[in-house]
Amino acid sequence: MSLRDAYERLYRYESLRREANVPWREHLNTCYDEFVMRYGNLNAKQNVKLVMMDAGGRDILSLERMENGKFVKADIFEHPVSFAVESHANVGSPEEALSASLNKYGTVNLDYMREITDSTAEDLLTALQGRIYYNPLVTGYEIKDRFIAGNVIEKAERIEAWMGDNPENERMPEVKQALEALKDAEPQRIAFEDLDFNFGERWIPTGVYAAYMSRLFDTEVKIAYSASMDEFSVVCGYRTMKITDEFLVKGYYRNYDGMHLLKHALHNTCPDMMKSIGKDEHGNDIKMRDSEGIQLANAKIDEIRNGFSEWLEEQSPQFKERLVTMYNRKFNCFVRPRYDGSHQTFPDLNLKGLASRGIKSVYPSQMDCVWMLKQNGGGICDHEVGTGKTLIMCIAAHEMKRLNLAHKPMIIGLKANVAEIAATYQAAYPNARILYASEKDFSTANRVRFFNNIKNNDYDCVIMSHDQFGKIPQSPELQQRILQAELDTVEENLEVLRQQGKNVSRAMLKGLEKRKHNLEAKLEKVEHAIKSRTDDVVDFKQMGNAPRPCGGIGKQRGKPEGT
Q1: Cβ neighbours of residue 325 closer than 8 Å, sequence gap 6 or more
Q2: Cα distances (angstroms) measured from residue 191 to each of 52, 321, 327, 386
Q3: In this structure, how many other beta carbons lie within 10 angstroms of the beta carbon of residue 291?
Q4: What DSSP letter does each residue of 150-200 carry, written as one string?
Q5: Rounded to an integer, what distance in angstroms lies between the CA atom of residue 189 and that of residue 192?
Q6: Which residues of 11-98 form beta strands (DSSP E)?
Q7: CA dist 563 to 397, 429, 438, 554, Å?
Q8: What are the tens digits of pLDDT across the range 389-440?
Q9: Closest Cα to residue 97, out of 78, 81, 118?
Q10: Is the separation of the CB atoms in 409 and 552 below 8 Å?
């Protein structure tokens, strides 16, 4: 009991305070040594049954692990396992300092980078010239991959506005250099003649559609669009002959006039028309699709849609220019980030060991992907089969651990690939401490012990399958945040529906109200669990892992290979 209390006190202190407690660790070692001296190992046959009588027995048994046929102390006896002990990343170059800064602070923190490299700010800026730029909009430096990415046109305009408001700012030379880089990265403008305007595209203002339809139907047409429901609504001042006659399609059960067809044209759909071909024995209609009616409706809908492009051609140059500017600002303004990881050296990587598995070197694409993962703390590697996604995951996980960007990296793969991932990791890093989850570890009897093994030891990487990872419980606080976010979204959608008044779909409203009720019930259950929990089950957060698994996602016969 004294050993249990010493362990729980130390782990709780270090996980909450994020700092080591040397006296309490010494006390834990003393309690353990005294127990072993008097009774033998915790996991000895004569002790396991007695220890398991305590509510925290599984936690106590995980204070030992098996190595070479012997029970040895878990890592918590030597150093904290709930967080990374080192306060600074281990870096050997300005690029690694930059990566460490981005992952630790999310920004280019020059003070931090100076501290971990013993360099001056001027030396770092010189070494990283062209890789980082000063962004006055965030009052700091940004990596090139982030700065010259996204909506570069809008970003350049905002920086130009800042320069106009701060003409005497001492950062002006750096800002001009950054602005020039943004201008060079702007996509080439697309002209009106090269654009294909489709009737009903959501980015075109509804007023443009209304002006076209008003001319086509010879009456005032109003069109509104609800983004939250992705729904158009149409009304007209009065129904002209074009609406009631020229664009009328007569069906067996109902007629579709121009306003009905206009709504279908906006959504690029066609009415599903049916007709009766007789009666059954009960006197009910035997229905089949009205192919002729559908074909006629399609023809009239195509007439509406195709006429829109012709109408645009007739508009003034000023109108066309405004539409082209709107398109380019909305779609032709984004730049994808480019990741260049050629500077990385991977100091712990054992290429000789990989050679035995047919891997002679690290591809440039793999280096770029690892650099992207290190910068962003994660990402997507959508490479084809055979291009080395497994090695990307292994190198990225190890690099994050080496640089203290992740504390306990975890790789998750398909059940059939987990053994291969573990073998690749071991070949790449023979001295790494890997915990590889077998099916036996995740049996009902051993699962909690396996969780505690992760919690109380400092592994370089933990590897398991998707199914196994799904059995790790999440903390009630995290579940509460997720459920609350879903509930907030449902309430927003309900408010939008209620504002629609009579036009709202009753089925949609009833479905959202039922969803809200279910989420509220789940929230109450989680809140009760938070108030009454006994901390007898280890959740993902308590294991000391990063907030998310690290690695990439690839394809293996149409399925995710790893996360």
Answers
A1: none
A2: 75, 9, 10, 41
A3: 10
A4: EEHHHHHHHHHHHHHH-TT-TTHHHHHHHHHHHHHHSPPPPPGGG----TT
A5: 10
A6: 64-67, 70-73
A7: 11, 20, 18, 8
A8: 999 999 999 988 888 778 888 898 888 888 889 889 988 888 888 887 776 7
A9: 118
A10: no
Q: Which neighbouring-strand residues pair with 133?
A: 142
For residue 324 the two structure tokens come to 């082209």
Helix axis angle, 291-313 relative to 206-217, nearest 10°?
110
For residue 8, what pLDDT band results from cuts at 50, 70 and 90? confident
Farthest CA pair distance, the chain: 101
Q: What's the DSSP call for residue 64?
A: E
Asked if 265 contacts 304 with a C-beta cutoff of 8 angstroms, the reply is yes
CB burial of residue 67 (10 Å; 0-12, 13-18, 19+): exposed
pLDDT at 536 over 90: no
Question: What's the chain's average pLDDT?
Answer: 82
Contacts of 423 (CB under 8 A, 6+ apart): 357
CA atoms within 13 A on the CB side of 485: 6
* Cβ neighbours for 479, distance < 8 A, ≥ 6 positions apart: 526
Q: Is the pTM of this model over 0.90?
A: no
Identify whether the C-beta of residue 290 lies closer than 8 Å to the C-beta of residue 306: no
Q: In 188-341, which residue ranges form alpha helices assigned H by DSSP?
A: 206-217, 241, 258-267, 291-313, 317-330
